[in-house]
Amino acid sequence: MMLKRNDLCWCKSGLKYKKCHLEFDKKLSDLKRKGYIVPGKKLIKTKEQIEGIKKSAEINNGLLDLISENIKEGMTTEEIDKLTYDYTISKGGIPADLNYDGFPKSICVSINNEVCHGIPSNDVILKNGDIVNIDATSILNGYYSDASRMFMIGEVNEEAKNLVKVAKECLNKGLEEVKPWGFLGDIGAAIQEHAESNGYSVVREFGGHGVGLDIHEDPFVFHFGKRGTDMVLAPGMVFTIEPMINAGSHEIFIDENNGWTALTADGSLSAQWEHTVLVTEEGVEVISK
Ligand code: MF3
Ligand code: CO
Ligand code: CO
Q1: What is its EC number (predicted)?
Q2: Ligand 1 pocket, mutate which of 77, 107, 108, 119 (most atoms under 8 A from CB)
């Protein structure tokens, strides 16, 4: 359908097309004609959708805050799962992980050499010196938000501490690259440069992703790559950046006992931080704060 200048904009702002997304659409179709990869309409969130995603993120952020207040040595990861389920339901939300593609629990808890998708269990007890990634995804009124943080249990050695710190810096380096009409490839390039200059490696098999109306949407957000490549970023896009940084080689394997948990191939430590971000007219807004 071709909108006319005086029609109402497709984004449901209530404004005429010419006063709203007309210039925006022209810019994207120009770029597309020149050969750039541009986001389709489905990847541009409306104001209403952005509000919904932000409300969902309030629960998700609250959950991670609650976990950070309660996490401690001696706790089982099953207890973290229960905290997640109870808190999310009490706020009117749904843990997005639960039953996602058969995932059996409400949250991912990945310890030390586990890269991601660690499954909470009564048999896994947090111990002194562990570094732990907690990755939470929440649904509220059909809107999704996704974030993860690292936690250090008791006394953690300097090597592990440094990995956790550099992994967070990698996320921040990625965030700094997010700007309208920039490139998705700039994010991965900045992350890879920072990880590798610190002697670490970037996991290849998992990336960030569009998020909001579903848990995983396009685009796939690489955490390595080249500047000036991949999709052009436009205001209204919502996606995650979630670099998984290994102390040793970037290679991983999947635990065949559960079919989910990714582990480092060489047994080295892995750390990850994740934010959900919105591309704005001015730059970036971190939604998962
Ligand atoms: N939160 C994860 C992500 O960042 C998704 C977890 S899906 C699950 O994409 F099934 F493993 F829980
Ligand atoms: Co996540
Ligand atoms: Co994610």
Answers
A1: 3.4.11.18
A2: 108
Q: Which residues are annotated as a binding site for a divalent metal cation?
A: 135, 146, 209, 242, 274
* CA 17 to ligand 2 center in whole angstroms: 35
Asked if residue 74 belongs to a domain, the reply is: yes
* Average pLDDT value for residue range 66-72: 98
217 close to ligand 1 (CB < 6 Angstrom): no
Q: Does the beta carbon of 81 lie inside 6 Å of ligand 1? A: no
Residue pLDDT, tens place only, 95-146: 999 999 999 999 999 999 999 999 999 999 999 999 999 999 999 999 999 9
Examine residue 89 and state whether it is found in any structural domain, yes or no: yes
The whole-number pLDDT of residue 192 equals: 99
CATH of the domain at 184: 3.90.230.10
Alpha carbon of 166 to ligand 3 centroid (Å): 19
Q: Where does the pLDDT of residue 2 fall: very low under 50, low under 70, confident under 90, or very high at 90 and above?
A: confident
Domain carrying residue 144: 43-288
Q: What is the 3-state secondary structure (H, E, C) of the chain?
A: CCCCCCCECCCCCCCEHHHCCHHHHHHHHHHHHCCCCCCCHHHCCCHHHHHHHHHHHHHHHHHHHHHHHHCCCCCEHHHHHHHHHHHHHHCCCEECCCCHHHCCCCCEEEECCEEECCCCCCCCECCCCCEEEEEEEEEECCEEEEEEEEEECCCCCHHHHHHHHHHHHHHHHHHHCCCCCCEHHHHHHHHHHHHHHCCCEECCCCCEEECCCCCCEEEEECCCCCCCCCCECCCCCEEEECCEEECCCCCEEECCCCCCCEEECCCCCEEECEEEEEECCCCEEECCC
Is pLDDT at 43 greater than 80 in this prediction?
A: yes
- The predicted model scores a pTM of 0.98
**Total domains, the chain:** 1
The verdict on residue 199 lying in a domain is yes
